[in-house]
Amino acid sequence: MADCRICKSKTVRVMDFGKMPIANGFLEKPTGSEFFFDLVFVFCPTCFMAQLENTVKPEMMFNEHYHFISSTSKAMQEHFRKTAEAIIESASGKNDFLAVELGCNDGIMLRHVAAAGIKHVGIEPSSNVAQLARRNGVTVEECFFNRQTALEIAQKYGKADVICGANVMCHIEDINSVFEGVDALLKDDGALFFEDPYLGDIVRKSSFDQIYDEHVYYYSGLSVAELAKRHGLKLVDMQAQNVHGGSMRYYIEKGAARAVNTRVEKYLSEEKALGLDRIEGYARFKESVDRICQDLKSTLMRLKAEGKRIAGYGATSKSTTVLNYAQIGPEILDYISDITPTKIDKFTPGMHIPVKAYGNFLNDNVPYTLLLAWNHKEEILKKEDAYRKNGGKFITYFPKVSIE
Ligand code: TYD
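^ inputs. structure came back:
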């Protein structure tokens, strides 16, 4: 049993996915050596943190070849524009306001803050996306955020009113050091807010595809409250976000300056009712994941046996877990369509399915499409209305396999 990264107690294994490749490790060629690691999902009964047992070195995931570009979805652009608006509003009337974003990616959020003339800095270790952010007018520091770099940022830019991060806190193994950095960089009346895929949604929907190398932690209100308390900080609000298949935004402050919103108690009670505070709460998770994978594989095999062609839609990081765990390869999916330029004409990690430009999908009229980017379902179904009107069908798999 591995030790919990937060509180050093013994963790308990929830599910072993076996050998998995790096989720964003797209290959130039479908042959040659590839890195695999043991993907094991564990839970700490002491501080309630769900996490990976083993991790991959950050440099292997977040480097100049990093394939995740935030601004590929309209819904995400709108989501981050609203986040920026809230920051711009809180900066109003303050002269020395500073906003810091951890993992600013291509500047999808901070570009609006920059355009409003507000002092800001984005922290981004992946040099290719940091470059995109700079082109979007964002001030970027290319580094990993920890206590040391936080002190350097405080020295260079002053202390922060707001520190925020979206889909980044779950990536950072030494999260204790990040919280130390937050404590060092935040003004006394400042606030940290961050959002990540929500453990409550993962367990409720069995959406196990959130579990992959980059996601070290699977946060809940229970675990974030504990984590904050350990660093002298306080969880003061939680707000559900309708992105990434179900995310939660956590608001954390230094003192008890702001009263705790009643939503926090509501979410914590719901989480306890779901069993997220004890290992028994995860008992049915593996069973349910295996059932979904079996149903999905048999549905796809049945369609293939009927001579139907099937494509994938969205070469997401998430799909690496689904495709590899359910063993869905190029003999089932002809290709996966994706709009991200750096993924096109590459091969998916582990299963080596070719990734093709969106144009291929548009010209193909393939009868069935596996919606791997299911978190963008609403946007994609709207966009692919003509495909469906022509008889094309999408296959989805959470919370159960369905064809529509
Ligand atoms: P994303 O939602 O960021 O998921 P993950 O974090 O698991 O990678 O990925 C969405 C992927 O789907 C991305 O590669 C872009 C692609 N995509 C399309 O190809 N077409 C679309 O219309 C949308 C919305 C996304």
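The first strand starts at residue 12 and ends at 21. Residues 68, 72-73, 314-318, 337-340, 343, 373, 375-376, 379-380, 383 surround thymidine-5'-diphosphate (CB under 6 Å).
thumbs up if we can close this ticket
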